[in-house]
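Appendix B. Extra example for self-study. Work through it before the problem class; the solution is given directly after the inputs so you can check yourself.
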Amino acid sequence: MNPPATFFSGFELKSLLGGEPLFIQTLITGLSIGGIYALMAVGYSLVFSILNFSNFAYGSIIMLGAYIAYFSFVKLGMPMGVALVLSILGSAALCLLNERLAYSPLRKRKASALYFMISAMGTSIFLENLVYATIGARFYAFPQEFTGTNFEFMGTSIGMLDLFAIIFAFVAIYGLHYFLQNSRTGIAIRAASYDIQVCELNGVNNTRLIGLVFVLAGGLAGISGMFLGMRYMVYPTMGWITSKAYIAAVIGGLGSLPGAVVGGVILGVLETFVSAYVSSVVRDVFSFSLLVVLLMFMPTGLFGKYLEEKV
Amino acid sequence: MRKKWLAVLMAVSIFCLMLSGCSPAAGKGDVIKIGEAVALTGDNSAWGQPEKNALEMEIAKINANGGVMGKQLQLIAYDTRGDATEGVNVTKRLISDGVCAIIGPGQSGVAIAMSSVTEPGKVPFIATSATNPKVTVDEKTGQVRKFSFRTCFIDPFQGTVAAQFAAKDLKLKTAAVIYDVGSDYSSWLGKYFIEEFEKQGGKIVANEAFRSGELDFRAVLGKIKETQPEILFIPTMQKEASLIIKQSADLGIKTQYIGGDGWASPDLVTLGGPAVEGSYFVNVASLEDPDIQGFVKEYKEKYKADPVMPNPVMAIDALYAIIDAIKQTNGTDPVKIAEQLEKTKDLQVLSGKLTIDPATHNPLNKPAIIQKVEGGNFILFKKYVTE
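Solution. Structure tokens for the complete assembly:
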């Protein structure tokens, strides 16, 4: 038997130099994780760009989206497309409700961003415990027949679900981008992201505008919730994965949509490579170090606006 | 008025109990007192209640057959609520009741706390399902606790069982291990597996750690795929195990999945789906164990429910170890019983043969159960005794 040390160094060398399939496999896995991070990061950034606070309740909305998708697809036996639409609509409605109940009163009293954040954390804990109390702490998984189809590509195995998730995430993000760039409402949202007061002075109904932003963010939450649920499983604390999306949004520059996408993909790919080539134990050490170092040199992230502009 | 009388009556009876308990002649009477520290209420009562039921049933049977050395056995069971402080109180009471030995508790935390009373009190206890190594061995001194025993094997031993089963029965030669670095249970199981698998001539081709709460294992699994292991040993709980197996199948890894008793929840199948089919895992006890069928049948007839594994079986094993020690020492002196328990060798108990390791007070080569996932159910594949 070989001594373990020799064996492992040989193994590292092989995978670093000649291990093509591992490299491609890691890249694909990284992209699929990055795609979901990007989708969630866009939802975060959308709200941040208008209201200038981090909506920590977003993770819980994603979690509820996953439950809606699970129950309509698995328990009620609806087709997958219908489940996705229901998840999008349900999450959008919940996200709007969240804004109207938890943030709107604060906005009317002109509270500072800190109070919004505290309210968001409260909402998040409330929703999580609501699920514990009503549905329970059980884990749910989508049926394997659906999620487990693969095809071989250059010696690696790619899940249909991953491919679908990557494509759908980017289509959704592009659709949002197109909407923001080309429609009147989109222009109003972009204007509000620069200065919401001036925007209102120019005749935009801010209450409706903010409501719409939350509906859009909620829709994205529905999509990410369903993909997360299918990829992993559905359970009350699954929303915590959004802490990664939040980092992605910060890396890209909070409030910037292209930044959120780039941040998400960078984080997903980097994490997967660290897990595969170093160790998954130090993965989070890497991603959080990246965040700290980046913020030291680029305090507004890769695509962020100047901080002064917002204050 | 009635309440007052009741109170007086209770006080008198408690006083009498205390008197009889304190008298050194406790064993000289017609009964032999055996204590039980068990969680009858609280989260752990699901195991505690059947444990007490099983002991009562078994003791009634022994008494009906003439008892032990002509004396009747008496079980004194007190509720620990699965709580360490309560466990200490209960133990003090049992010792003052004059029991010759204590069966239980089921929880490691309670057992460790109890040893602070049983060591100076010089009364042995035999834990039923307390699997932490610190229960019988003092962490600071590294010395075995003279009065602490157990009939269940310690968690990491499952790693040894899994390794021998994989190497000898499945005749597989290479293995990869993926474990949770944030969990003692998982890391130790992995460590014992690796040690034993290498001892059996197998080769560990990958040993990968992940952090608790991880959801995506594909990066690490991609790395493991390159090493083409014949076995993937996953010493985790059912949630991680099912995710790992599912994702491993997604990546097209073809290997034999093996795990420990953390898998033993129907969730493994509902979450893992068809990918977990054909996997094996080590378990502490099983209702289908052919050696305990007589007991299970009696229990079901008497209590109209299944005994919740493994506590009832472990408690009855402990009962027989105590009875054997009483017979061997020809008396009920707790110190002598403790000394005799240490020498227990190849004693036939309910779950198989019991041998106590004098160095650790853990059972040696205690039989384990190998379960297999077949048709979405856990079936008893084999009862396994290590060498």
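Self-check: The domain at 28-153+289-356 of chain B is CATH 3.40.50.2300 (Rossmann fold). If your reasoning did not lead you there, revisit section 3.
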